[in-house]
Amino acid sequence: EDYPGVITLRQATIEDGGIYECHASNDAGKTSLSITLDIQQQPSISFVPDVEQIDLTEGDELRFTCMASGIPLPTVQIKFPENARGLVPARSTDTRRDQSEAIFSHLNVQRSHAGIFECIATNEAGQDIRYIQVNVAEKRGDDGMIFLTSSLIAN
Prior knowledge:
Elements: E1 18-26, E2 29-37, E3 41-48, E4 53-57, E5 62-71, E6 75-79, E7 92-96, E8 99-106, E9 115-123, E10 126-137
Parallel strand pairs: 4-10
Antiparallel strand pairs: 1-2, 3-5, 5-8, 6-9, 7-8, 9-10
């Protein structure tokens, strides 16, 4: 229940943020007060490409982007599978006014790089975590080429 001079915001949205003013007066005089209302939004993650699994062959390039939006702007971190060695961490960068991203790229992926990668976005309002499964198949020794030979048998 609201009372005179009270504002209640139920299910506040980003648009509800801003400067609010209260003005009061009586026979003794008048006064006013301004406050700034900042609305925070938990991070929300998306992947590019928008997949939950990436299938590669040894020697391929592993590349994906973890993007996050939220208010305040979240930091983004990519965690590697525990068994993955020799991978360089991706850094969080502010790409736009309303989004952060971490780009992961590794040339010449090996089978030891396979596993579940975690994307973690964090800000003052909370955290979001998404996972992407990376599978790395063994490279075929014949490079995918098949040679056929034939022999003639003379009678």
